[in-house]
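Format notes (please read before filing issues)

Several people have asked whether sequences and structure tokens are stored in separate files. They are not. Every record keeps both together, in the order shown below: the sequence lines, then the token lines. Line labels are part of the format and must not be stripped during preprocessing.
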Amino acid sequence: MKKIAFIFAITLISISCDPKKWVATHATSWYAKNNTDQILIITTSPFIDTDAVVDPGDSVLVHSFNPFQYLGEPTFDTFYDAWNGKPEQEWCISICSKDGQLLKIWKYVDRNAEGRQFFNESFWRLYTKKYSHSDQLNFSWVFNILPEDIALL
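Then the structure lines:
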């Protein structure tokens, strides 16, 4: 009798759950775009040891994440999860010239300071895309690095 009850419970649970809902994700990406006239070297992520060389007009992926759809639509704040585990004082993105000269450091702790801040969502553009063949939504945030952002320190 216990086996029958167990099998019945497992069957009921598997029928009542939509497995697609639990495995479906949304795609999220954060890009830094070089809107200057010079080649930049950008620290792209807390996970990657090498820096990205970004030509004028090009972009580099800073972070991506595919959260489950059942959690709802992702927000910009998911970006901060990339640095989870590191002290907030260490959350930063740096920009260097092609010869290695430091041009800019944006720190998370300064996200609400005056001026353009990399870690402040209001300076990012959001693009959302939905494909007709899927329930997945693609969220892409883009931060433009401007000439005034990289004026020498």
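For reference, the curators noted about this record: The chain has a mean pLDDT of 80. The helical segments are 2-16, 19-23.
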